[in-house]
Fold these 3 entries.
Entry 1:
Amino acid sequence: MRISVALCLLTGVAQAQTDTAAKINALISKMTLEEKVNMLHASSSFTSGGVKRLGIPELVTSDGPHGVRAEHGRDWILDNNLADSGTYLPVGVCLAATWNKKLGYDFGAVLGSEAAYRGKDVILGPGINIMRSPLNGRNFEYQGEDPYLVGRMAVGYVKGVQDQGVSACVKHYAANNQETMRFTINVEMSERALREIYLPGFKAAITEGGANTIMSSYNKFRGQWASHSNYLLNQILKKEWGFKGIVISDWNAVHNTSQPLWNGLDIEMGTDLGMLPNPNYGKFYTADTVVQMVKSGRMPEYLINEKVRRILWVMYRTHMMEGKRKAGEYNTKAHQQTAYKVAEEGIVLLKNNGNLLPLAATVKTIAVIGHNADRKQSMGGGSSQVRAFYEVTPLQGLRNAAGNSVQVTYAQGYVIDKSNTAKQALIDEAVAAASKADVAIIVGGWTHGYNYSIWRDNAYDAEDTDKPSMDMPFGQNELIEAVRKANPRTVVVLIGGGAIDMTKWINNVPAVLQAWYPGIEGGNAIANILMGKSNPSGKLPVSFPKTLADAPAHKLGQYPGDSINVYYNDDIYVGYRYFDTYKVQPQFAFGHGLSYTSFAFSNINVAKTANGATVTFTVKNTGKYAGAEVAQLYIHQQASALPRPEKELKGFEKVYLQPGQQKQVSITLGKDAFQYFNDVTNQWVTEKGIFDILIGNASDNITLRGKVSL
Ligand code: BGC
């Protein structure tokens, strides 16, 4: 009985696929060559061409990745008269720091729903490039340094978006790990690094997440533009991974006509031929020239049909052709609550000496210090900008949480400006405020740039720019030193997309919170954590080196390369794979994050299965507060033909526990969890031997060990 139901379902699916294929073929047979080619390139800043006569709509795209972008109209000009302010979600690195796969889905669902409401067909996210160097200006948009974690978060995000009837666009494929020279740099890396580090997130988003579209990146890969790369697009993405959807170029990533079309690109976007403000989209590389080439026999029409087929396939899959997509919702309480939840679970408590946090009930005065405390971040960073429906700043959040019983004062402390210097008068003012208060809270760190209303006034955490160094800008080191001397009960809250050099003050400051760019509700989440209304549970999705010189891309590899090439000689030793193997202590390790309660791991059991192992263990909340712990499972191969990193993440589970409560966690490891890519034989290999199973709550805090012999 069950078998026949399953067969019926399968037959039904196969029938639907045949029906769609037949509809697509019928449409293609009615289209002129010009109409087909019109679908292969932009028709405005954020749309590609449709065929009105046949009811084929334009494909409407929008950034992404942490909110639906402010409207730019068809002409690139920011529209200031529209009701386009929506839910500004925490940035990608904050989402990854939750280590909560369900929140990945919920985040995507908010985005998909708001995109649908705004009439978008494709949301240009998630951004999942690996954080190779702490300097990358777009690290804030990405999901960390570990391919397994990136993959898990991306799968949830993509499904969340696409369940709302909107397509996700995974970006930037591939090897786009720096903004410096992003339009020209050629990336060279080993096949092993490509397969083990830089591709798994994309593979998971496509093969498990089912992403309908992917964005090819600006950079070159092994001598060829990524958007023209036969290897990346045709061989790996379309053949190996069976991708049926659309490859969309990054905006202005296409450089000629034949190569990208033959090598796997489907839609050319954003090509800037100096045409603004009167663009002629027929002048794009994959426009009128293609018509001429096909007509003169220099390009076969089947190549064009194949691309049109892919676009129509996505249009049918997302019900664009029937015009029955879900309506979506905008600025709902539920969306705001998801944004809050991601911030609450993604903010990481890095240090908490003497349990300064949560702030005791005896704290009656708080001096809030720092430009970032009072700064709205949503419109900064470049294409990921969002016009937020509202944005609770850290200062506002602290005022909300303090109510009438606690007095909150504010001093700016430093200024985000291009002079990039300490301002003694502001430091003096901050010191005076701190010395009068029970506690000082400095909100500092990075910024997306200077004036967010000026396009390209970018710096630090922003598109098309990398950070000049890991040093704290705007004289914040001096500020922190002066404030903590005035009041040893000083907490530093860091805004930003990743590591900053803390060496000048970290040993002198008792408590540090990494808050990323925490979105529309970020200030409330920060305040609730500081005041103990929420218990922090975020974990670093990226290692924080002490100094830039300690970062593997800079120590072993090249960054940003010469003016032509960058060689990833750091190879597979990215992030903790480097710190652990080379025995270098980071400032804060991958997976690190403190809680107000304590947890104990016990009773590990490793049971061998047909092609891997099932690992079970117990996590107990041994402290006084309800809280969540992220149990992290790493493997270590005792002896391998090629060197392997000291440990590699292969599973994790976030566990929510009341005081005294315990739960059993079970993690199944398949064959792939034990494999590595042997680039001598050019294949994934599983070697026989002993594998250590390491469980802990951070990559540098392993508390349970087991073994399995394969
Ligand atoms: C960025 C993409 C973005 C696109 C459209 C490009 O410059 O690299 O991430 O989606 O612009 O705004």
Note: The first helix runs from residue 2 to 30.
Entry 2:
Amino acid sequence: MGFGMTIVPQPQAGLDQEQFLTILSREEAVRRFEAALFPRAVPSEVRRLAEALGCVLAEDVAAPIDVPPFDRSNVDGFAVRSADLAAAGEASPVRLVLNGEIIACGIAPTQQVAPCTATTIATGGPLPRGADAVVMVEHTQPAGPRAIEVRRAASPGQFVSHAGSDIARGEALLRAGTVVGSREIGMLAACGVAEVKVARKPRVAVVSTGDELVQPGHPLPPAAIYDTNGAIVVAAIDENGGEATFFGAIPDDETRLEAAMRTALAQADMLVLSGGTSKGAGDLSHRIIGRLGKPGIVAHGVALKPGKPLCLAVCDGKPVVILPGFPTSAMFTFHDMIVPVLRRMAGLPLRSDAKVSAKVPVRIASELGRTEFVMVSLVEGRDGLIAYPSGKGSGAITSFAQADGFLRIDALADQLPAGAETEVTLFTPHVRVPDLVIIGSHCTGLDLVTAPLSRAGLSVRSIAVGSLGGLAAARRGECDLAPIHLFDDRSETYNTPFLAEGLELVPGWRRMQGIVFRKGDTRFEGASAREAVAAALVDPACIMVNRNQGAGTRILIDRLLGGARPEGYWNQPRSHNAVAAAVAQHRADWGMTIAPVAHAAGLGFIPLAEEHYDFALVTARRQRPAVQAFLEALGSDESRAALARAGFRPA
Ligand code: AMP
Ligand code: MG
């Protein structure tokens, strides 16, 4: 099998699985990929102006004409000979006789402006022979039916734009390599240029692979998942100067996949696949690449996290890439290693706006020996941008929506210390600094309160880091509000004892906590919380689900248990929703969660005690318009009603 120079397949007894024998560093993988691809000519094509938006000019464009093409009046008034007005003043008005014609826009003058005459001219009109200046109509007075009086002098050239003063014929109008935007199109149109030679956008074929993939819009059978990579890769290619064609999701069938890859590659300049690159039994694409052209695979297995199974190949001059299957891994590797190649093929400069500098607020641990990608959300700190890791694991797609980009931790570093300055590669062309930043504990009720803000055009970013993480962010001035629900054991009160200087408490809402169980479970149905736990403890087959240390709910559970450690005690998820899911899916029989979550999951619920979900407000930020809008929304009838409907009790 053609694994090129880097991979030697290692047969294993009884295992149809090959190992990544040669893992390349990120830098070495990029070097080999680029060495096999460049230098190469960027093909060009002629496009009409209307179709050139976003294209890269393939050659310099020189102005074919002078702009403006003639000496042009900038005002409504009269074309004059400035020498006639040299002696004009308040006390010595000069009388000029009007010539018969009126020069409107688009009217070529026919009469000469002789001494002591003037011609009526409109803004944009060409200056007639003999005239060298224009006086504004406001600075003149009629003097009988066919004459005017002027009471101030005019300098030569006054209110005139001379031919070629904007752009002179032959002058370089635009340089090769310029990305054509609306302003460039304007310049070209002003010179009468209808077509330009631009770099032909690389045609990129996109193929998803996997038996489990279903296209969005179709029903999802059990064990299937929606094809995420197809849509996201197509969009990311178009965002970076390519022209993507999607060939669908192909099942893991060698014959069909090879046929699809050959068809796609024949029509394209580049082929991007995703999935099927880990060297598992069903993973076929990399085997097929060896048959598609020379030199074939140049890197398969790169020291990246996530993204290790990335496969880079060149087949008869065309790049062929297999991105890892997990969408986030696919995106990191695509943006970090494929986008630069794509842009170079498109004749585009490397995107300088794609990177910003930011500080990390917390220490981020990293595996030694692998270049690690960490997705981050950007917020504005006291001095510059702060990059919050949106740590949800490489399989989490929602981290994308929150994330602005990612940072890279060097293979030789085992961590990025808190406060370190780092470079963030943006997913979108520009940083979107949100109007309102909420960092802390997440609650589904939060969306109900911020909804009117979003409708009013304010952008809200909420980052879930737990109550304590939120308080730390608030103390560092990285957010406006930190939602918290912290129970103080000693004072038996919520939240207030945890406020630091500079923070004030804004009451939020109350969330009823209680025992959650599957409806119809006779051990719990109709019981009080105390009775329910007693019933659970006497049944050895009963399994509980706990909460993490530090959660307010955990304190309640431990009190109810009174030192008992029943089966399931060590299962300690970090969220109310995970508890409900464990019970709903029969992995546990009871646990403690909040009422809205239990009800949403269709579970039975025994109320016990209210949890206070409040906001630590950074006092220094109270007057910001977005904060005011939030406070207003929080107190509004609309959101109080919405909270109540969802099972919360507004404070
Ligand atoms: P694979 O590399 O094919 O084993 O895929 C690794 C993981 O990524 C599996 O959980 C796949 O279901 C998932 N995956 C592969 N391709 C896609 C895709 N196009 N969209 C979403 N998930 C995918
Ligand atoms: Mg697969």
Note: The longest strand covers residues 503-517.
Entry 3:
Amino acid sequence: MPANVLVGAQWGDEGKGKIIDVLTEQSDYIVRFQGGNNAGHTVKIGEEEFILHLIPSGILHEGKKCVIGNGVVVDPAALIEEIEYLHEKNISVDGNLFVSDRAHLIFPYHRLLDIKKEERKGEGKIGTTGRGIGPSYVDKMTRIGIRVGDLLDKDVFARKVRANLSENNELLVKVYESEPLDVDQLVETYLGYGEKIKDHIVNTVPLLNKAINQGKVVLFEGAQGTLLDVDYGTYPFVTSSNPTAGGACVGGGIGPNKIENILGVFKAYTTRVGEGPFPTELPEEMNKKVREEGQEYGATTGRPRRCGWFDAMIGKHSVMINGLTSLALTKMDILDKFDEIKVCVAYKYKGETVEDFPSNVDVLSQCEPVYETFPGWLESTEGIRSYDKLPEKAKNYLTRIAQLLETPIEIISVGARRDQTIFV
Ligand code: GDP
Ligand code: IMO
Ligand code: MG
């Protein structure tokens, strides 16, 4: 088995971290390929909870190699903080964490610009995580970005920061009425970070391709989700990268023909954090009930997540865009307590049935969900470990989702812990 890709199939926070952790056992390399520390991936081992923002969740298994690919934007301060957090928990990253020299860096002015841009948008804000993700990708695309590999040459690095800041400082001062950043101080701080992480910096492209050619199993860990994809999501209420399966090739440096399985992780319902349309979003009281049952608070910013029913229109879009070969459904246990569960099977727009997931958010925000209603099973699934033992009503719900999405469900998660997993 060469390369496998796992992606978030909704608006992020589907439980990717948990599923990655479960699949790491059968993998040799775990690779992040896009996004940055805007992600928050939770893994629960026994009663201990770990939250990873930048380092692949596979790091929690001994002997696995973890890669931060070229498509990721790296805030070195956040990376060092995460390495220290892992050290405190007796998890070593020495010799098993590789950071691409091509990955772009996040600087303090990216974070500042992220926040200032949001303030300026006011009502129309995206609700970003404020981690500087968008502005760092802007620099990459306008070709003034500075890469992780640049940290290894002091003179080159200082020259590039100077050139970049001559533009970004002007933006901060003249447009956003902010203080300019001190170039010398910034260079010194970042070279200090470089010194700390230099042993991890490599050209990860040959590393990964050699591994694949030797028959090692490489698992790509998507961050965010399909509906946050800058091309296929609810633009402009999206992130600035491609969290979809194609992103694994670009952001990891492997050919599409190397990919065998593409697993889409869905929550058994839907959540979203940040602004933007959300057709199946529940009215306040029910929204609160799902939020409290599912403990739906952001792993990165702590913001309450918006909650809604499962949306098969999104599901079908996600299957198509990613080429999903199978599905994982998480948080089934959260639905244990609902006497009625709904699934959106179609949208109505101005009275007409919509065939495809709309590309325009103004259309999407006027779409009315058409629901099928399922009776709840009203019994605990947390302790169940085989598909056969699931309540009939839960199986009916799962069967209908697989049928609507025309894709088999491979994994069902009935709790946050590793062992609370059903392989179908
Ligand atoms: P990610 O960003 O996709 O990795 O997801 P997050 O970690 O942000 O959010 C998922 C949350 O759900 C975390 O708190 C997980 O511990 C938790 N979780 C994952 N799977 C399950 C499950 O099957 N049942 C329950 N109750 N919690 C789960
Ligand atoms: P994981 O990997 C959920 C959302 C933000 C905002 C939008 C843009 O844990 O699933 P950004 O800071 O990326 O420019 O914000 O994207 N967002 C996420 N929502 N889970 C995430 O990551 C997210 N990463 C970004 O809330 O709406
Ligand atoms: Mg998350």
Note: Residues 8, 11-13, 38-41, 126-129, 131, 133-134, 223-225, 228, 239-240, 273-274, 299 surround 6-O-phosphoryl inosine monophosphate (ligand 2) (CB under 6 Å).
